[in-house]
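Quick one - inputs below.
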Amino acid sequence: MINDFIHPAVFYLLGGLLIPLLRGKVKQGYMLLLVVAAFLAVVIMPQGTYGVYEFLNWKLTFGNVDKLSKVFAYIFTIMGVIGVIYSLHVQNDGEHLAAFYYVGGSLGVTFAGDFLTLFLFWEIMAFSSVFLVWYRKIPASVASGFRYLLWHVAGGLILLAGIILYYSISGDLTIRHLPFHGWWPGDIEGMALFLILLGFIFNAAVPPFGAWLPDAYPAATVTGAVFMSAYTTKTAVYALIRVCAGSEILIILGVVMAIYGVVYAVLENDARRLLAYHIISQVGYMVAGVGLGTQMAINGVTAHAFCHILYKSLLFMGISSVLYVTGTAKLTELGGLYKTMPRTMIYTIIGGLSISAFPLFSGFVSKSMTVTAFGEEHLMWAFIALMLASAGTFLHTGLKVPYFIWFGKDRGIKAQEPPRNMEIAMIIGSIFCIGLGIFYQPLYALLPYPVHFAPYTAYHTWETLQILLFTQLGFFLLLKKLWCENTISLDTDWFPRKGAKGLMWFSNKPLANTETNFIGEVYEFIIQKPIMKVAQLMQTIDTVIVDGTVHNLGRFTIAWSRMILLFQSGQIHHYAMFMTAGVVALIVMIVRLF
Amino acid sequence: MKLVNMIETLRTKTVKKIAYGILVLLVMVDFIIPRHEVHFFGDKIPGFWSLFGFSALCSDYNCIQMVRQEWPYEG
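Output:
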């Protein structure tokens, strides 16, 4: 049944190429057709291995379909539909193409059966998504885009180094379960696995390699950020599940990440940057779950990635709509929008309640499975830390963002609800967030392992309600301390940003001074002046000897030619006379000689 | 603008009082709720998670004050 397998990335990567040739409603219809077709391709796709090609000495596999790849493909293609509906009004074809290549790259990674194919699509993702940042066309986005690219090129090269090292040891490129155990590589094979893991966690935005995320996402275009919130980190989580499940180091990194994202979001002023920090926090749950590696944890991580894409994109759509309508996403410049954008507020709050794992919303059925997996394994410190991060998530995303944008201080901003297509996308996202929170069984059925977990037990629901509602009480009591300032908080961005400043100072001051005052002088006396002397000498030789010889040779040739000219009169009897005289002279010479 | 009126109704003091009532009820019910999934000692203490949720904010806020490095917007 090989005909049933159509790689969904084909619709994005090849189908997308025609987008710039179309206009108006035809273009919009065509884009929708592509993304729906890609989703249907995943629905009808049977499990198995497809699309195997020989390239040089390697076997490249483009279609490795199993339960895990399929569930991720489902959510990636669903998100493709939502994202494209949200961005239908965008006129810039480049932005559409970048988004299509980005999603196509992500689907390519999902179905890759070997490391080389994975790496190819991995890089397509990085290089297409950076355009979603650059197309914002403001100075901050240009700078952010370059920093984003630097991080991803570094991560990609580390991954490639790991892949090459692994191939040199095993002679095999097939993607398989290769967990890294311990804290530091002890041998060459350990180094290969460590580098592969490191390459993946760059894209998963694990601190200290995650600074690109809160830097680039708020700088992206209105619709670009919605796409970006869904794919890069979740594709990395997928790769981690497939290759690195059970690597203990990921538990620590994931838990640190979950707390780190929440802490940095506390005083964040740009709402999209705040949401970006919460991606780090939420992906922290997933990374930690992958590190735990039990069946329940992997199920929880997969379900959480699925729900996370939906609610995080909904949140980004809500805030990006505010940015689209008002021109800012800074909390210090917004307030009182509930009068003009009440529906957008409701969609955003639905996203906020979902990410906070409020009962009856999607996050509850996925996050609780991941956290319970830690409880079941008696890793209590991780369990408590993840619960703490959960409270923090509600505090910022569920309370702070809606409060400061839609209530807070009324700034009298003139606004209205966003265009219809943006609203339809948000309605679809909201339906998914509530629908999955109530009817979670279809999602559980898609998960890679059999699910033995019931989210809605009395105690668990009560425990969650207590945490969330008392966090809310704390929020309103400490509201005055949570007012934002018009700055950003640096995390590991500190190193590239401060480092760049330091580099500029070093170049302008000590380096430039040394260059002018010392190296310049040394250069002049030791190199420049002797070279000039030698050059003068060479010039003299050239003028006097070489040129003189050539000139004199020329003069001699001209004189000789003039003399010859005397004999060449063109008269035949002159030539006969010269020849006769010559023959006579020759005979006289011969006679004289003998 | 029915939606706006509805939102404004939710901002009255009566709703605030009801919300406080719900919080009290949450803690009270925690004394009698069946506990099948005890993962650690906190699960046995009634109202533990209420206190946990309330104090989460303070710990977050103090953490960021310690590590915060400010930086201006680029434009």
